[in-house]
Amino acid sequence: MNKQNKYFGLLVAGALSAGSLFVAGSAHATPVAGPTPYSDGLQLLVADKLFTFNSCEITGTGAAGSPIGNCAGAGLVVAPRVDPGLIGFAMLGAVIAANGSVRDIALSYTVDVLDPNQRISDAHLVLVGSADTGGVMHVDEIMRNGTTPEAEINVAGVTSLIGNAVTVDLLSHLDVSKDILLIAGGTPDSTPPVITNYSIMIQEFSQTSVPEPVTMTVFGLALAGLGLIRRKRT
User: In total, how many domains does the chain have?
Assistant: First the structure.
């Protein structure tokens, strides 16, 4: 199989994955019928969570592989993702490093919980890719609440599936920065090409119910009332 055919096969596989992972009925801030091409500033509404994508850039070294530049140029798409107890999104497509090249995907976004009675309690990350001989993938994800660090997921030296989860404080807002590094084995002249590729990233959050502000106020008044009754009796 020549280089072009192998690259094309990976791109087709990424497109098919995008179609299969899209959750029918999920809403986008601007309603769409399916997965949405990535663009800076894109907002994706999934149940009670609003995801705002600030930036996504692909950098790297070596000529063999995906184009360097904004993720929109690589054809990446985002899609709502809902699983039991989890709400989030998937970013799909093919980013390839080949024949000794390196590609680095730097993604920045925020997540806001719109339901005042819900808070984020856990973050779950799944990355699907593959690496031929000599290639590896690294992922580093940092979550902050404004400038306050909350959690970090760091997985290095993996050649296929990456999965991890972390607990965060009960929060209604998170700032997330993610770095996905693809290092390909081989040399510029390797035939057939030696490839490390990214195809699917799934980011989901579990959540916990919190008492409604009105409920807490009523509860507080009730306690105060009981205190007054006890004082009068004594």
Answer: 1
